[in-house]
Every structure is written in structure tokens, then in C-alpha cells.
Amino acid sequence: MRIALVPLDERPVNVDLPRQVAAIAGAELLLPPAEAMPVFRRPADVAALHGWLRGLVAAGGASRLVACVDTLVHGGIIPARITSDSTTTALERLDLLRELKDASPELRITAASLIMRASDSYSPVEEPEYWSSYGRELHALGGALHRAFETDVREGEAAARPPATEVPAEVRSDFERRRLRNHTVNLAALALHEEGTVETLTLTADDTAPYSAGSAEQVWLRHWARALPRGGEVLMYPGADEVGAVLVARALAAGVGVPVWRIDCGEPDGLDRVPNFENAPLRDSLRRQIVASGGRVAEPGETAELVVVAHAPDPARGDYFAARPASDPAATDATVSAVRAALGEGRIVALADVRFSNGGDPELVDRLAEEGLLLRLSSYGGWNTAGNSIGGAVAQATALWAGRALGTADESALREALLTRILDDRAYQSGTRLAMHEAEFGGRIGPVDAASQEAAIARITRELREYLAGILPAGEAWELTEVTLPWQRSFEVGLTLQQR
Q: What are phi and psi of 41, to 5 degrees?
């Protein structure tokens, strides 16, 4: 199988992780040329990107296309938040999918489009420059407008009052017009799905909250999904950077069947908790990621071929971005027991370590390593948001299931993917990165100078090599050959592993 992917941006989680997912099943992933891709805040060369797709489809180079609409239309995830292209321009670019389908009716297109976030911060690194002054106020405005909308529905239009805000009119106008443009693109994507141009459509919410601009837009999009005959097939759930890997896994599974999953959680109430940056209980996020990857959750009494074990969110909403939250020994014991039991059944086991945001739970991962369970997992995810972690872990396990069914599974690729996530999510995100946050990166999320990057990469390489040597069993040799900081900052890291 040859799958073409238009990634959300150029970072490893959006390029390398989908590539690893495809490789696990023995498939080939076709990616745009590097010069057409976005670079941090610089948009993709949309014309070159479209040219690559036209040439690929004309040559019959792929049977499936996974297209991230934000890149296809706006030039990437950050450009979707900061560029000022008109709605007309955006819709004309989206129409490329209809053109490709007309040129190659057998092409199966999966599209993913984001519901734009409104970050609850004053960081302008990934947002318009005015976020440094009005970011949290804009986030709060989205929540207030969402509540006002609910009041309208309950009490009628006369009850509504415009929410008070300290945001200047020109700033509010700029931000809301961009949201309106992107929302219009999402509505147009629903139409493409309804007409059959797009076979599968996901509308995922990037960094949201129960009351927020993004959550309100989901309500409006769900209205149209209910109204359209095919709208019930549209997938809407929290997520962003994992979506490329998840939809590649879906394409792999589509050639085999529907993988059946069981959801396990050691803590009785763990699945009812709402993770950080999301707007639904963990149970719903797990199910939606499984469905998006092409699977389904087993009915009561039905045997599941795959198991996802959830290390449930910390009730205190811990986050590894700039601090070290406390692990809970009881929660760790419960998750270790659940992993041990699932592995004992001989299932394909994925571990969604969503205890904390922005890093895996060190106590859990180290316990699993000590007990010889860690490298028996089929996949692991503990990075960034719960949706990111769940989606990445589910995608890799789905690829293994598909590869084994087809007789094309690559166990070496599986090991590479598992080790990459352990090194990134545990050894780096909740280990080395946290220790370097102040000294090497100045406590900031923004890019640092070349000298700081060089020093940081040297330390990351040294410490991650030591960690890797400590978890590999005797006789198994892997080497960390390269470390990169793709956006010249601490938040994401690129790792290259080779088997010796």
C-alpha cells in the first residue's frame, strides 16, 4: 500500500510518527518535498504542495490520500492562526480535493481539519503577536460567547447580552474574522464529505476547554453533521498533532477489516475525568481515537484483539511543561497491574499515559521497565495532550494489527516507534527537558540562539543515550544517532534511531 500524506506541519510528530506507523505495517508513506513544507511560522508553499499532489495523482502514485486541510489551505497549523488570506482564497485551495477526485475517481481521500484553538496564555510564539497582551482575554471571551450562545438557546435572543471584554475592537475583529474564515472552511469540508469527494472527514478540536470558542464551534458543526445524511460518519473529537498518524492507521486497517479494542483503566473513576486541554471525559476521547483509527470498542462479552490501557489523568491536573507534578503510587500500581494482565492475555497492548500533560509519568514508565513489561508493549504515548498520547499509541498498535493480518508487519519498525516514544515522552519530556527548562532554555517556550541549541542538543543526546542503554535487554542494540530541535526550542525534539 502507498499512502500519500499532507502533514499538519514539518515537526517529527506530524512527519516521522506517521512514517513509523506506515512502516510498522510494511506500507510506504509518500510525503511532500521538504521545500514545499511549512517551517514554524512560515507557511507552506501551497502552490508547490498542490503541484506535488497533482503530479502524484496523475501518475497513479498512491491509492489513498490523507490530507490535513490546515496545510493544504492555510499552509500549516500555525499559519492557520496567523495568516490573513481571504475566505475566497481558502475555499479555492480546498477545492483541490474535488479536482483530484475528479481526475482519479478511485482515489480514496481522508481529510482532517482543525477547529482553531484560542490558547489560554500570553505566549505569542504560535499565535498572532497581540497574544502577548490579550491572549487570556481572548480565550475567556470565547468561553463567555459560548455561555451566551447557550443562554440564547435556553431563554431566547432577547436574553442575550454581548460579553464584556477588555480586548480592543481591532484586535477582536482580526481574531474573530480569522476564526470565521477557518469555520467556513470546516463547513465546506462537511460539504465535500457529503458529496463523496472525501471518504472520511475528521474535525478535531485543538487545545480546547468545556467552554471555549472551539467548543462552541463544535456545537454548530455537529448541527450540520446531524442535518446531512452522511454527517453521522464525520468524526469530531479533541486532537491535533496525532491526527496524521491516526488517519494513516485508518488507511492501513481499511485494507483488512475493523480492529476490536478493549479499554482498561486501573482506577475505577479514571475514565470519567476530563483531561487537560480537552472538553470530554477520557472514556469518550479513547473511544473516538479508536474509531478514528478504523477500529471499534468491543461489546460486553466480546473478545478484543487489542487493549488500550489508560493511565488516567491526575485529579490535580498536573502538567510537566515547567514543573514536576507528584506521581501517585496507588495509581501507578493500578496501571502496572492492568498492563501486566493485558499482556498476560497475549493481546496487542497500547499504553496511553495521560496522567500528566506534556510528559509521561516517570514512576509508571520506570516501574514497567523494572518489571520487564515496558518493551513488551506494542505502543506507548505520553506526550503533550491526552488526545496526542492516545492517538499516537492507538495508531501504532492498529498498524501492527493490520500488518500482522496482511503478513507484512515489520517488527523492527515497531521497536523503533516504541523506543522513540519512550525516549521522547518519558526520558526527554518529563526528564531532560524539564531539567533544562530554566538553565538552557531560559524558562521560555520560544526559540533560543544557536549556541544554546548546540549545548542543549549535546546534553539531550548524552542523557537519552544513557536512558536507552538502561532499558534495552541484553543482546538488543539500538543507537540514538541524531537529535534535533525542529523549532529551535525545547517543546519538541526529533530523534533518529538505528538498529545496530
A: -85, -15
